[in-house]
Write a structure and sequence with these properties.
Elements lengths: L4 H10 L3 H4 L18 E7 L5 E4 L11 E7 L21 E5 L5 E4 L4 E8 L2 E12 L6 E9 L3 E5 L1 E5 L4 E12 L3 E10 L3 E4 L2 E8 L6
Antiparallel strand pairs: 1-2, 1-3, 4-14, 5-13, 6-12, 7-11, 7-14, 8-10, 8-12, 9-11
């Protein structure tokens, strides 16, 4: 089966290859193209040779019997949105850790005592903390601990522990922090009732993450 030159040229137009196959062979290009009402461009293509000439169809110009009429727009319709790409790899994270002297002892009053502090730059963080409670006098007592920060959005899930005389207990707590600037975050503990002596100090860890979603 023999393919006619004009058929090949039509394919070039449909595929958007007019610049390569049509304009190179164009013999005329009227100034009033495209149509001022529809935006459609009209061209005539010789069936035997594929030679192209533009016409002003808006003024009634037409193709001859030896030519094939081809119309197209300067810009095609908006295509459908493509599928979402694959999720990128998780970026590197940073961890910040600080602890007080493990052998220091201090009194934790009912009004509260900062047992560990950490300075952080702007970012999103997952927090973890610990404080050690040792009861050296009196009867059973308890201690609660939570995170405190003067800057940023902080969530804190307090920890709680009770301890008998001459026994120790570790209080653990978790939280999150989102801050736009440098800030400090503290582990603050309060004794219930009588003061308690904490031995072993406290530890605070902040791990930087891409985002924090509190549920």
């Amino acid at each position: 089966m023999t393919t006619q030159p004009w058929a090949v040229a039509v394919g070039c137009f449909v595929a958007g290859s007019l610049a390569a196959a049509g304009i190179a062979n164009a013999t005329s290009a009227p100034t009033k193209i495209p149509d001022s009402n529809t935006g459609v461009i009209t061209a005539c293509m010789k069936k035997k040779t594929g030679k192209v000439r533009f016409i002003n169809a808006q003024k009634g110009k037409t193709c001859t019997k030896k030519e094939k009429k081809v119309t197209f727009n300067q810009a095609g319709p908006q295509g459908e949105q493509g599928p979402a790409g694959a999720q990128g790899p998780i970026g590197p994270s940073k961890a910040y850790v600080n602890s007080t002297n493990p052998w220091i002892g201090f009194v934790v009053p009912s009004t509260g005592k900062t047992v560990a502090s950490l300075s952080l730059p702007a970012g999103n963080y997952v927090l973890a903390g610990q404080a050690t409670l040792l009861r050296t006098q009196g009867g059973t007592t308890g201690m609660s601990c939570e995170f405190k920060s003067a800057v940023g959005t902080l969530t804190s899930k307090p920890g709680w522990a009770t301890v008998d005389l001459n026994e120790s207990e570790v209080v653990s707590l978790t939280g999150t922090l989102t801050t736009d600037g440098n800030t400090g975050v503290d582990v603050v503990c309060k004794a219930s009732g009588a003061d308690a002596v904490a031995l072993g100090g406290g530890v605070i860890t902040a791990t930087e993450v891409g985002a924090v979603a509190v549920q």
